[in-house]
Amino acid sequence: MNIIYRSLLIMGALIASTMAAQADDKGIQDPFPEEVTKVTEHSIKIAGERIKYTATAGTSFVFNKQQEKIGNIFYVAYTKKDAERNRPITFAYNGGPGSASVWLHMGTFGPKRVLMDKEGFMPKPPYQAVDNAYSLLDETDIVFIDPVGTGYSRPGGKGTYQDFHGTWEDIRSVSEFIRLYLTRNDRWSSPKYLAGESYGTLRSAGIAYHMGQNLGVNFNGIILISSVLNSTLDEFDAGVNIQAPITLLPTYTATAFYHKKLDGQFDSVQAAIAEAKRFAMNEYALALLQGDQLADSQKQQIAEKLSQLTGLSKELILLNNLIIDMSTFVHQLRRDEGLTIGRLDSRFVTEEVDAMKQAGYRDPSYMAIHGPYTETLMDYLNTELKFKSDLVYYILGGLIQSWNTSEFARDSFDMSRKLRHAMLRNPDMKVFVANGYYDMATPFFSTEYNFSHMGLPKSLRGNIMMTYYESGHMMYVREADLIKLKQDMREFFKFSTNR
């Protein structure tokens, strides 16, 4: 349907994974009849300070309105030892829907991270986890959450997957976990944060609205990594939606610059992006608005400029009526070299004999992280956190077979409406937005467009902090951006707590 729900289809062999999941869990009614926790003690050095912390890996029941158990959510919580009760606490998760929290957990925020090469490309196996000197543990306690159907989280008791697998079902169930964690661990008085990546950003906006509106919980800040709040902005529906080709163009240009397809027109990726933005919001937008009424001479000029900004041929652009969808771009930019580029991170490439004739799409940027993150996480959970289970730990998509969007449809598939409501209700809440230049899954210009059309009063626009990185969807896989992200996050915590 769109980027959020399509994401499960483009990241590896998920159909096979789903079939395996069905077979694996067949007949299992309640894999965790009791709550299970494993507590271990650790320390890590961050910014010159040795921090002692407790790690709790476990499952927490989820209840319905009748206080009947409907599921178990697996989580890993890191809390600083001997800290004051009002220390900030951050609840973190990833996207999909159908992704475990492994990426934020083992990529950037947690005390351990998967070791990639400096540019974020896959190292040779066996893979390893190292102490993460750029963890957020010096700023906040962190609870990583795996929504039901991901990781080790499953329905149980009176619950079924239908209780969890929908936009608002997901928001309410994760909110219930957060409420229960705050209560059980005496953290109601702590400064509270939400951190989500990809679909997790949509989840964060919904949780901030739902918990503020219905549970009286106000958050100090929301951290949006590779944001997608409006799931219609990437729809390439010729004649109906012209936003997608406009808002994706700067990402195409950044990608073409990286792959040296712009004939040396620009001195930097920032200069290339600036020109793409200018053209997208002016000549290109006006041309697409005219549709078939666009004069042929103007069409030729627009196609020539698009060719200069994308590295694609003018003939191909004219053949596609000036609208370059993502599939065309990833397959065509380096097709003459037999290469397809990545969607999550367009710096990555993979070889194809003939990319346009291959069944499905193998995203090289996902293939590069899937193995290292899976192997490293499983070893870490078993050996250091002492949490063992015979269940399959679903990294991405394994148990998500359908997703209910009926309630979301009433908001026109745009969760920024709920984020605006949450910000109006809680005007002290700050929002951090991290964008990767080479992210075609959640393009940065689409995010800018969404935030500039939220209708926020001027008094609240300053609550939003936008940052940018020279990598993709998971910008933290590149070491320089991992470091920059931590520096930016440190500033955000100061910004949101008035330190």
Your description of this structure?
- The protein has 499 residues and is of the alpha/beta class.
- It has two domains: 359 residues, Rossmann fold; 123 residues, no CATH class.
- It is 39% helix and 18% strand.
- Strands 1, 2, 3, 4, 7, 8, 9, 10, 13 and 14 form a ten-stranded mixed beta sheet that branches. It has a two-stranded antiparallel ribbon with strand order 5-6. It has a two-stranded antiparallel ribbon with strand order 11-12.
- Helix 5 crosses helix 13, helix 6 runs antiparallel to helix 7 and helix 6 runs antiparallel to helix 14.
- The two termini are 43 Å apart.
- The N terminus is likely disordered.
- GO terms for molecular function: serine-type carboxypeptidase activity.
- It holds the Pfam family Peptidase_S10.
- InterPro entries: AB_hydrolase_fold (IPR029058), Peptidase_S10 (IPR001563).
- Keywords: Carboxypeptidase, Glycoprotein, Hydrolase, Protease, Signal.
